[in-house]
Specification:
191 residues; alpha/beta; nine-stranded parallel beta sheet; 52% strand
C-alpha cells in the first residue's frame, strides 16, 4: 500500500486513471509506523511530485524534487534531496540524503549523511556516518566515520586529506611554472 500524508498533488496526470477529476490526490486510510494506527492520507502512485513535506511519506515508482518528513519509505523511486528522521530506500536513488537512520537496499546515493547508516548491495559516492554497516557488495568513493562489515571505500578521511593536500601542491607548482614560462614568453615576443 502506498501512503503519503502530504497535501501535494502530482504535476502530471496519473497514467492509471486513479486521480480524481478535480486534480487532488485520492484520499484513503493508511497505517502508520509500528502502532499501525489508521490515519487519513493522500496517495500518489507512479507519478511525479514537486516538494513534499509530511510526517510520513511512502513512494512507489514515483519521483520528487525534495522530500522532508519524519519517516520516508521509497521503493523503485527517486528524489533529488531527502531529509528525514528515518529513511528506507529499496531499489531507489537519491542525490542528497540527510537522516538520523538511513537504510539503502539495492539503491544509490551521491551523498549520505546520517548518524546510523546501513547499506546493502548499494552504491554511494560519499558516506558520512557516525556508524556505517555494510552488507553484501558496497561501493563507496569516500567514507568518513566508523564502520562494520566489508566496507572498502576508495578514500577514507585520512586518504582524502592526503589526496587534497597533494592536489593543492601540484596546482601550486603548476601555477608558478606557467606564470614563469608565461613571463618569459611575453618578454621574448616583446623583443
Amino acid at each position: 500500500m502506498t501512503e503519503r500524508t502530504a497535501t501535494t498533488t502530482p504535476d502530471t496526470s496519473d497514467q492509471n486513471g486513479t486521480e480524481p477529476a478535480d486534480g487532488a490526490a485520492p484520499a484513503f486510510v493508511a497505517k502508520t509506523d509500528t502502532t499501525k494506527s489508521p490515519i487519513e492520507a493522500n496517495e500518489l502512485l507512479r507519478a511525479d511530485a514537486g516538494d513534499v513535506q509530511a510526517t510520513t511519506v511512502t513512494m512507489d515508482r514515483s519521483g520528487a524534487e525534495s522530500v522532508t518528513a519524519q519517516r520516508v519509505t521509497m521503493e523503485r523511486s527517486g528524489a533529488k534531496t531527502l531529509e528525514a528522521r528515518s529513511a528506507q530506500l529499496v531499489n531507489s536513488g537519491v542525490a542528497i540524503l540527510k537522516s538520523e537512520q538511513a537504510v539503502l537496499q539495492g539503491g544509490s546515493a551521491v551523498l549520505v549523511s546520517a548518524k546510523e547508516a546501513r547499506l546493502v548491495k548499494s552504491r554511494a559516492a560519499v558516506v558520512v556516518a557516525e556508524r556505517l554497516t555494510g552488507e553484501g557488495e558496497l561501493k563507496a568513493l569516500l567514507h568518513v566515520g566508523s564502520s562494520d562489515g566489508c566496507i572498502r571505500p576508495v578514500l577514507d578521511g585520512r586518504s582524502a586529506l592526503g589526496l587534497g593536500a597533494a592536489f593543492g601542491l601540484v596546482v601550486l607548482v603548476f601555477g608558478r611554472l606557467v606564470k614563469r614560462l608565461g613571463g618569459r614568453w611575453a618578454e621574448a615576443s616583446a623583443r
